[in-house]
Amino acid sequence: MNPVSIVLLGLAMSTDAFAAALGKGAGMLRPRWPQALRIGLIFGVVEGLTPIIGWLLGTAASRHIEAWDHWIAFGMLGALGLHMIYKAATDQDAAEAAAVGGRRDGLWSIALTGLATSIDAMAVGVGLAFVEVNILIVAVVIGLCTVTMVTLGIMAGRVLGTLIGKRAEMAGGVILILVGATILYEHLHAAAG
Q1: Residue of 58, 150, 177, 179 with fewest CB within 10 Å of its CB?
Q2: Pick from 49, 28, 36: nearest CA to 115
Q3: Residue 135 has pLDDT above 90, yes or no
Q4: What distance in Å separates the CA atoms of residue 180 and residue 193, rounded to the nearest whole number?
Q5: R_g (Cα) of the chain, nearest Å
Q6: Long-range interactions of 166-171: CB distance < 8 A, separation 24+
Q7: Average pLDDT over residues 145-149
Q8: Burial code of 124-134, b = ≥16 C-beta within 10 A, e = fewer?
């Protein structure tokens, strides 16, 4: 994967957390930067760890299916992208975002919300086990993107609400599909050349 694909992947993985942060920020009374950064750091750590867990699981299976690895990565990223677009289009998790906004912002509550929004990052980690990529760099980029997006989402949530959250999630889905297509193209292009 090239650096641009890794950054786009990081941004795509942070859109669920961004949408939840918008909901959280909308439910908070005048959130302050230190408070938003603390929530962003919790989300970022969780979101950064989950692709590593998925990658470890995928690596255990990768040696058995090397001939199809690029198709698996493409299929998983594409399906995940389509699912994100579907969720955003059908407003499937609006109740979840509202619930996040109404919860107390204790450490465990925020960490559990971060885990709920990072399941897709674990699935991406599984898919990345089938391509040549430094998972630690990918995990750090995903974590940093999430810290940034959640912090900004908390601060913007009071003003913007969930309208932008849905559009960001749709954009994240499109980006995942494009990253999967890029992985497939790079592998097929290398095999042909």
Answers
A1: 177
A2: 49
A3: yes
A4: 20
A5: 17
A6: 166/19, 166/88, 166/89, 166/91, 167/88, 168/15, 168/18, 168/19, 169/15, 169/16, 169/18, 169/19, 169/84, 169/85, 169/87, 169/88, 170/84, 170/85, 170/88, 170/89, 171/12, 171/15
A7: 95
A8: bbbbbbbbebe
Backbone angles phi, psi at 182, to 5 degrees: -65, -45
Q: Token digits for 86? A: 């579907």
Rounded to an integer, what distance in angstroms lies between the CA atom of residue 177 and that of residue 74? 8
Asked if residue 115 has pLDDT above 80, the reply is: no
Residue 65: Cβ within 10 Å count: 12
CB 169 within 8 A of CB 36: no
List, for residues 69-88, the tens digit of each pLDDT value: 678 778 877 887 788 788 77
Whole-number Å distance between alpha carbons of 93 and 176:
19
Task: Give the amino acid at 45.
Answer: V
Q: Where are the alpha helices (DSSP H) in the chain?
A: 3-13, 15-27, 33-62, 69-90, 94-102, 107-117, 119-128, 135-160, 162-192
Per the model's pLDDT, the better-predicted residue between 185 and 43 turns out to be: 43
